[in-house]
Design a protein that fits this description.
259 residues, alpha+beta, Arc Repressor Mutant, subunit A, Serine Threonine Protein Phosphatase 5, Tetratricopeptide repeat, 2 domains, 8 strands, 53% helix, 11% strand, disordered C terminus
Length: 259
């Protein structure tokens, strides 16, 4: 079979397949079974047919699962010839097919590699996209969704620290807040925000970020932050509220308070 033309598979924020010079909405081109096959191969490397059939059609007899696999493979090859390479009893995406999830994994590995120059690091568009295949509830999707969420969060936190050490504070705080947006109750992400502010010398910003997290944590979970978070700001001065005397009652109220 001829090599596949340029192809790109997107799994973050939903399934999409781009072929040659035009993009296709997956729901209009590939039936769901074919989508699931392409998605599964995008998240694996060279699985055997038996493994694929068992993962994608776990609730039917084996012979029916293999029949469904053959049907899905035929549909993919009809719409996107060469997209899937058949090698004996295994299947794989053709060489050169781009997959956003693989790009995210490669980016995270580069961020965590001390040998990668910080000048070459940033949070690209693919990194900031949403979750893996939202609305899909297959077991193999759920496991990879959580794996990729953790991979992204850890990498963004590491990136924030590395950028701050390189004095790229604007990029660092953006990376840290991207982690916070991804998981608002994740303390390590909020600690990254506080560390960046401290590295830049913005003590008030650091305290403000700390107190905002404390309030969020108390409201949502009714708990206090860990000692790791507390130690980041221990000893820092807290902004004081200026008090004014109200003319008629003699009571005191913080500046800016409603009366």
């Amino acid at each position: 079979m001829d090599p596949a033309p340029f192809a790109r598979v997107a799994l973050l924020d939903g399934f999409a397949l781009e072929l040659a010079d035009h993009a296709h909405g997956s729901s209009d081109v590939l039936p769901r079974g074919a989508q699931r096959l392409v998605a599964h191969l995008s998240l694996t490397r060279r699985p055997a047919r038996t493994a694929i059939a068992g993962q994608l059609w776990p609730d039917v007899p084996e012979v029916h699962a293999h029949g469904s696999l053959r049907s899905a493979l035929w549909r993919v090859q009809k719409i996107a010839p060469g997209l899937i390479r058949v090698a004996g009893d295994s299947l794989a995406l053709a060489a050169g097919v781009h997959v956003d999830v693989r790009e995210l994994t490669t980016w995270a590995e580069r961020v965590s590699d001390p040998g990668t120059s910080v000048e070459d690091l940033d949070a690209s568009d693919v990194v900031l996209r949403g979750e893996l295949l939202p609305g899909w509830y297959d077991d193999w999707v759920l496991l990879d969704r959580e794996r990729l969420r953790q991979l992204r969060m850890h990498a963004l936190e590491v990136l924030a620290d590395r950028l701050a050490r390189a004095h790229r504070y604007g990029d660092a705080v953006q990376a840290a807040y991207s982690a916070v947006r991804g998981e608002p109750l994740r303390e390590s992400a909020h600690r990254a925000v506080v560390r960046v502010h401290l590295a830049e010398g913005n003590l008030v910003e650091a305290v403000r970020a700390y107190e905002a997290f404390c309030s969020l944590l108390a409201d949502e979970l009714g708990v206090a932050p860990t000692r790791q978070m507390i130690d980041l700001v221990s000893g820092l001065p807290r902004p004081r509220r200026t008090e004014v005397r109200l003319p008629m009652t003699g009571r005191r109220s913080p500046v800016g308070a409603r009366t």
